[in-house]
Amino acid sequence: MNPPIRALRGIHIELQGERVALLPQRAIWWPRMKWLIVADLHAGKSEVYRQHGVAVPDGVLQEMLRRLSQMCEALAPERLVILGDLVHHADGIDGAVRQAIGDCFSTLSRPALLVRGNHDTSVALPSTWPIDDAGDALEEPPFRFTHQPSVTRHCYTLAGHLHPTLSLASTTDLLRLPCFHFGPRLGVLPAFSRFSRGVPMQVGLADRAYVIADGELIEIGEGDSGADRSSLPADEPGSKEPHA
Amino acid sequence: MTRHPDESPLPRELASWFAGEGWQPYSFQTEAWRRWNEGRSGLIHVPTGAGKTYAAYLGPLGDCVRSIAEGGSDTSPPDGLAILYITPLRAVSRDIEKALRRPVEALGLPLRVESRTGDTSTSVRARQRKRPPHVLITTPESLTLMLTQDDAPELFKGVRGVIIDEWHELLSSKRGVQVELALARLRQFTPTLRTWALSATLRDVHAAARAAVGVDSPEPAIVTASINRPIVVSSLLPTSVDRFPWAGHLGMSMLEPLLAFLDPARSTLIFTNTRSQAERWFQAILNARPEWAERLALHHGSIDRDVRERVEAQLKSGATTLAVCTSSLDLGVDFAPVARVVQIGSPKGIARLIQRAGRSGHRPGATCEVVCVPTHALELIEIAAAREAIAAGRIEERPSLQRPLDALVQHLVTCGFGEGYDPERLFDEVRSTIAYRSLTREEFGWCLELVEHGGATLKAYPEHHRIMRREGRCVVSSRRLAAIHRLNIGTITSDATIAIRLVRGGVLGSIEESFIGKLHAGDTFVFAGRLLEFVRLRDATAFVKPATKRTTFTPHWAGARFPLSTALSAAMREVLDRVARNTPEGEGPDAAEAEVAPELIAARPVIETQRALSALPTRDETLVEFLTSEDGSHCFIYPFDGRLVHEGLAALLARRLGRIHPASFALSINDYGIELLSAEPFPFEELLTVELFSSERLLEDLLEAINLGELARRQFREVARVAGLVPQKYPGGERSTRQLQAGASLLYEVFNEFDPDNLLLVQARREVLERQCEDSRLARTLERLRTSTLRMVRPSRATPLAFPLVVDRLGTTLSTESLRTRIARMVGESVVPRSDSAPAARSRIRSHA
Per the CB < 8 Å rule, is B846 touching A177? Predict the structure, then answer.
């Protein structure tokens, strides 16, 4: 395994014949192109909350940018690709946010490539940020990069937007964790920002999912065990919930 | 001035009005008036419906009468607010207003009596601002809001007396703390202010009186009445409980006996403990007796206020005679005609049962009777225990909360309106309340720093500098922040609710968002006593229409369950002890003594099943049951100490057991006991010793357990809202937008990671300890368990005591294992990723480590 990937505690998977690495720092590394792919940074979200009187403590953005810099140092990407929602809202882009992102992005070898997300569309991004606008979609076969999940015939889509999470439950335990989710034609990245609430995903027969737990990735999925599926007892979680 | 002892302390015209109404003053009323004339403050502690209101009111009103008389011309009334009447329930303010206005109108006094609550229109408020009434009825929230008026010192300057009604309801809550703080403020404006609290059913009257008058006041007077109102507790008994003796659920099987008891010709309040229970019983009664539809009503806190008020009016007029209700009808509104009171399910507390019983025979001297309807065989034991506790006069304590910083943070902004405050003086003022008498300078400084500079983390954000200095005084820094603060004053926090509106018609009430979130178009449910079909959700309103198909789906409201109180828990252990020592054959120490309570005879099948399968604990024993099922290893422990204590105890035990032997437990809790369940075999029998109940390192272990579990997260939500970290409302009806759906639990995580020493987080944890777990109570419970004999039994199946814990598992978990181990087991044991709608496929884990 590639040493930097191992150091980041990432894992390699094969997607459309391409070898990519999933990183527990909530990013995908595409070695052939040397692209580092992230989604949903929601910069300025804490600031928007604060403007509405919600006292979010400091440090969310700083932690996120530290995580990004750590990966960039280890991997020296050719391109940083952002699958939308770089910013949360125009109101949140104050001087400090502008400065912090500008500083972080200017250490990149080339401008970041931004696929516009629903939160980005109405915002004029600061000109001091080295960013190339990729519009609503970016194609680099075999992949197509968008913000909102959608499916096409000719390419495998990688998207963000959902902030996917996976809930695991048993009679004695319950966990909800951010995850990477890969279906037959569409893969969804976890939100890069940790100040985000996610959409619970399901893992179907043809799906694979990787949850992020304590800085490592654990695969949850149907995998290749289809043969014994028919013999399973029909246990439906939640069906025995009593109503008091 | 000398006065004959039998002469009325009231001015002559007031005394003769009182007599003219055909009333003879009770001695406690005369005493209260006399104490008022002596310039005292205090507490009037008499049973519900005995005439407290006039006992407190006619003293200060007498002062007004005298000063009008002294003023010579009765055309020029004294100016400004003279009497302030605080009630916890805005719904009853109109009735109080009527009562307070009666003598004023009868004597033609030039005094205005008005109410100001959250329901008061802005035009009326504006008028009241310009021309304050002489007597004002208000709520704690509206009073605090008035403190933010620029002219507050002027407005309250002339107040002679403050009357706090239903003080027992406010004590022990943050609303009570809010009142204490507001009163401290008023005393600054009016040092001669006299405070009179009114209360029923209190254990420690001196502490309650002290909380009302503050630390610095002279000894408060206590006025009590020896009005004898015997309370009779009886039950409707099930004819048979032996169908599932180990389960004990009686459910609706008590409907028939209840229907036989009810009589639409006799007005009856039917109290339930939860809103969903009220809905279900209302439906069941209506279905069985459709001919009662005209006389039957439903009343609970989620139903639209107009509808509730209509129900209250119909109850008073006698048009409605049967009302199924929740604690929404516990207080206020003296319905003269209520003849009978029914309690469905356990009352869970002695004071509450006394209060509810007091709604019947609402006349001094009359007997109060409450008829209990058990919904579970074990509740029969609770009813018998409640009767004994009432007879012995053992009721719950209600201590004032200790320095909740969130309420102080809010107060520091509230006081910054108008001229603002000098922080040194405010520190002394705040410390003159019972709630903050031990507040340290550091804590006060931290709170001030939070509102002035945003605390340690929000320094750079002017949006959070709610207070600024102007010539050394602390004042609110901007109009927008002032507007947000005004809208969010108060300490009542609730989950986001959604209005329920008929597609063709009006609003029926409101319901927790989480319930609506689970509904799909076409789903039917019961609400406000009607069968409804969910149509769509739009603009934060759930549109519904009358349903045509039947349903059994009743909304399940969160947080609506009362815990078994300390007093009732203790009484129940006593009763169980006696039952345990007496064999069914009638042998035992007490067998020869007086007759056994009928409830205990009715509960015999369950009691004897428990005895046969396992055991009944005596006073000095703690019953522990071990069971292995396909779910895993179960361990049941029965301290009989109420769910709040059990919640803390379960977390503590899981933490301590998990330290010896890492594991993940599902915790289940009810008023009788706890269950720890481990999916993997766990050596409970080997590890469970009395040492686990040691109070050594209690605080540390509890804090750890609380952090691992969900408790602090839940509590933080309330703390964050009260302290104004998460406003719930914005000016101009601006709702929180999509950009701003701040889950408080998400915020909790962010705080935990980025600002772990935040005092409000610390407070959230402390509140969990002190209130959720009632830590001193928990320490007492631990001491009792530690010195008890563990009676360990391995029954062949779930016993009557265990069964409710097994079926009512709440999904609380506590783990001392790594995430990887937990995931591996969950996935390995072929449990699937949980989805809310469709069942997912089986999953397997593949390790990439």
Answer: no
